[in-house]
Design goal:
The complex is a heterodimer of chains A (411) and B (175). Chain A is mostly helical. Helices cover 77% and strands 0% of the residues of chain A. In chain A, α3 packs across α16 and α6 runs antiparallel to α15 (317-335). The radius of gyration of chain A is 20 Å and the shape is globular. By secondary structure, chain B is mainly alpha-helical. In chain B, α3 (62-87) packs antiparallel against α6 and α5 runs antiparallel to α6 (151-173). The chains are: A mainly alpha (411), B mainly alpha (175). Chain A binds chain B through residues 104, 107-111, 113-115, 179, 250-259, 262, 265-266, 268-270, 273-274, 277, 336-339, 407, 410-411, and chain B through 1-4, 43, 47, 63-64, 67, 70-71, 73-75, 77-78, 81-82, 85, 89-92, 94-95, 97-99, 102-103, 105-106.
Chain lengths: 411, 175
C-alpha cells in the first residue's frame, strides 16, 4: 500500500512538474498557427522523454552514475567539458526565463512591482532549496503544478473537434507556401525540444540518487517516467487545443505570457483565471528551481565532487555555491529586463542543438551489459532509443537554420 | 510592470534627465548607487555591443515588415477579445491592468522596430502608414490601461481598436 502511494505520488509529481515556460509558449503558439497539425510532435516528444527518462533513472540506480558522470566517461574530457559548459549556459538562460515568468505571474496576481517580485521570488526559492529536503522540494512544486489541469479542463470545455484533433497525429507535409512550411517545422522542432529539455533528465537522474533508489525501485522508475509523462503530455495537448480554439479563429498569435494564462480559463470565470495563474506559477517555479539545481548537479558530477541536497552543507560546499550562483546569475540576467519569452526561444533552440550530446552517452551506458548487468536495455529499448536519437540529431541540425529563416518563429 | 522601452505613448511615463544633469548628480551618489550605475553601464555596454555587432541597421525585408504588422494586428485582435472578457467581469482587476501593460509593452517594441527600420524598396508608404497606425494602436492601449475599470468606456475603446486593426490589415494586404 505504501509502495503504491509512493508511486502515485511520484506520478502526480511528474505530471505537475512536466510543463514549463517553453512548453506553455511553444505549444500554445503552435496551436494558434497550425490548429492541431502539430499534435504528432507532442506524441513524439512524449515517447522520447519516456524512453530516455526511464533509461536515465535505470542508469542512475544500477550504475550509480548520474547523467554528467556518464557524459564525462563516455564523451571524454574535452567534449564532455564543452557539453557541461553548453548545458549549464542553457540551464542559466532557462532559469532566468523561468524567474522572469514567475515575476510576471506574481505581478498579474498581486499588481506589485515586477522587479521587486523577481528579487523576492528568487530569495524565496533559494531559501526553499536551502531549508527543504529534496523530496519536499520536488513534491511541493510538482503537486502544486497539478492546478495546471485547469488548462486541460478548459480545452475540453471548449469542445475540440476530436476527429480533427486525431488527424493531427500524422505530420502534415503540405503547407500553403515555403514560409508556412518553415514555420511548421520550426514549431515542430520547438515542441519536441521543449519536451526533452536536458535539465529534466539531469534533475530526474540526480533525484533517483538523492532518494536512494535501489533495483527494487525500477518499477517505480518505469511508472513515473511513463505514466507521469503521458499524463503530463495531456496538459501539452490541452495547451495546443487552447491555441487552436481560442486564438486561431480570432487571428491572435500569443506573444506574452498573460495571454496564454487567459486561454487556460477562457470558458470560465474569475476563479478559474486565478487557478490558471497559480498553476502556471507553480510549474515555472518548479522549472526555475530544477534548472538551478541541475546546474549544480552537472558541475559536481562532472568534476566528481560531493553533491546532494540532503547532505550537510559543509560536505557539499561547491554544490551549494553552484546552485546559489545559478540563482544569482539568472536573477542578474532577468533584472536586465530581457523578456522571458525571448530567452525561452533561445533556450529551446540551443537546447535542441546540444541534446544529442546528453542523450547519446546515456543510451550507450544503458545498453552496456558490463555496466548494467541484467538491467541492460532490451533489444527493443535500444532500437527505440536509437530511432529517437536519430530524430533528436536531425532536429538538432535543423534547429538553428529554422530559427534564422523564420526569425524565431514570427508568423 | 512591463519592461522599459524608449517609446511610450503614455504621457505619465517617467521623465528622462539629460546627460549634464546626470553628470552633476553622479557627484553626489552613494557607493551603492555608484555600484548600481556601474552595473547598469556594464549591462548597457554588453547590450549595445551585441546590438551593434549583430544587428546593425539593415533594411527590413517585405516579409519582416509583413510579420511586424501581423504581430501588431494580432495584439489588436487580442485586445478586442480581452475587452469582452474583462467586460464580462471574468478577469481580476490586477490581471486586467497587468495584461494590458504587457500587451502595450510588446506593441511598443514593435513600434520602435518598425519606425526605426529602413523601409524595403517600394514599401516606404506602407512603412509610414504602418508606423502611424501602430502608434495610434499603442496610444489606444495606453488609454485602455487607464480605463480598464470603467465598463462604460470599454465598448467605445473596443470599437476604436477594432478600426485600427482593420487599418493595419489593409496595410498588410497592400504589401
Amino acid at each position: 500500500m505504501k509502495k503504491l502511494l509512493g508511486i502515485t505520488l511520484g506520478i502526480m509529481t511528474a505530471l505537475g512538474g512536466f510543463v514549463d515556460l517553453g512548453q506553455i509558449v511553444f505549444t500554445t503558439q503552435a496551436g494558434a498557427l497550425f490548429k492541431y497539425e502539430l499534435l504528432w510532435a507532442i506524441v513524439l516528444g512524449t515517447g522520447a522523454i519516456i524512453v530516455y527518462m526511464e533509461m536515465c533513472g535505470r542508469v542512475a540506480v544500477i550504475a550509480k552514475e548520474p547523467v554528467f558522470a556518464v557524459v564525462r566517461t563516455r564523451l571524454g574530457w574535452p567534449l564532455g567539458l564543452a557539453t557541461l559548459i553548453a548545458s549549464n549556459l542553457l540551464n542559466l538562460i532557462t532559469c532566468a526565463a523561468e524567474l522572469g515568468g514567475v515575476a510576471i505571474v506574481l505581478h498579474l496576481l498581486t499588481g506589485w512591482h515586477e522587479k521587486l517580485l523577481l528579487i523576492a521570488a528568487t530569495i524565496v526559492f533559494a531559501a526553499m532549496v536551502f531549508l527543504m529536503r529534496f523530496q519536499w522540494i520536488e513534491r511541493t512544486l510538482g503537486l502544486s503544478g497539478l492546478t495546471m489541469i485547469v488548462f486541460a479542463v478548459s480545452a475540453v470545455a471548449l469542445r475540440p473537434d476530436w476527429p480533427q484533433l486525431a488527424h493531427g497525429l500524422l505530420p502534415s507535409v503540405s503547407q500553403a507556401d515555403t514560409k508556412h512550411a518553415l514555420l511548421y517545422w520550426y514549431f515542430a522542432v520547438g515542441i519536441f525540444s521543449a519536451m526533452l529539455m536536458e535539465y529534466e533528465v539531469h534533475f530526474y537522474s540526480s533525484g533517483a540518487i538523492e532518494e536512494d533508489w535501489t533495483a527494487d525501485d525500477l518499477g517505480e522508475n518505469f511508472a513515473v517516467a511513463s505514466f507521469g509523462s503521458v499524463l503530463g503530455s495531456l496538459l501539452s495537448v490541452g495547451l495546443l487545443a487552447l491555441g487552436a480554439l481560442v486564438f486561431l479563429p480570432r487571428g491572435i498569435f500569443p506573444q506574452v505570457l498573460s495571454t496564454t494564462t487567459m486561454a487556460g480559463a477562457f470558458p470560465f470565470a474569475k476563479k478559474a483565471l486565478v487557478l490558471a495563474l497559480i498553476g502556471t506559477l507553480a510549474c515555472i517555479s518548479g522549472a526555475a528551481v530544477e534548472t538551478a539545481l541541475s546546474g549544480a548537479y552537472n558541475i559536481c558530477q562532472f568534476f566528481n565532487l560531493n553533491w546532494g541536497k540532503n547532505q550537510p552543507v559543509k560536505s557539499v560546499r561547491v554544490y551549494t555555491v553552484a546552485w546559489l550562483g545559478m540563482f544569482l546569475l539568472a536573477l542578474t540576467i532577468a533584472l536586465t529586463g530581457v523578456r522571458p519569452l525571448r530567452l525561452v526561444d533561445l533556450s529551446i533552440v540551443f537546447g535542441m542543438v546540444i541534446m544529442p550530446l546528453t542523450y547519446y552517452p546515456i543510451l550507450r551506458v544503458a545498453a552496456d551489459k558490463t555496466i548494467m548487468g541484467k538491467h541492460v536495455n532490451s533489444r527493443f529499448d535500444t532500437v527505440v532509443g536509437i530511432i529517437f536519437l536519430v530524430l533528436i540529431t536531425a532536429a538538432a541540425i535543423a534547429a538553428i537554420p529554422l530559427m534564422v529563416l523564420t526569425h524565431s518563429g514570427q508568423p | 510592470m512591463p519592461h522599459n522601452s524608449n517609446i511610450s505613448p503614455d504621457p505619465s511615463s517617467p521623465i528622462r534627465l539629460g546627460p549634464r544633469y546626470t553628470r552633476e548628480a553622479s557627484k553626489h551618489l552613494s557607493p551603492l548607487r555608484h555600484l548600481r550605475c556601474v552595473y547598469k553601464a556594464a549591462v548597457l555596454f554588453v547590450v549595445l555591443a551585441a546590438l551593434t555587432s549583430c544587428f546593425h541597421q539593415k533594411p527590413l525585408s517585405r516579409d519582416e515588415l509583413k510579420s511586424k504588422l501581423q504581430m501588431a494586428a494580432s495584439i489588436g485582435a487580442e485586445t478586442t477579445t480581452f475587452i469582452d472578457y474583462a467586460a464580462e467581469r471574468r478577469a481580476t482587476s490586477r490581471y486586467a491592468k497587468g495584461h494590458v501593460e504587457y500587451l502595450l509593452s510588446e506593441l511598443t517594441d514593435t513600434v520602435r522596430e518598425l519606425c526605426e527600420a529602413r523601409a524595403p524598396a517600394g514599401a516606404e508608404t506602407q512603412v509610414a502608414d504602418g508606423c502611424k497606425e501602430l502608434k495610434a494602436l499603442a496610444a489606444a492601449l495606453g488609454q485602455l490601461r487607464r480605463d480598464i475599470d470603467r465598463p462604460d468606456e470599454l465598448a467605445r475603446e473596443q470599437h476604436q481598436i477594432a478600426d485600427l486593426r482593420r487599418g493595419i490589415q489593409q496595410t498588410i494586404s497592400s504589401l
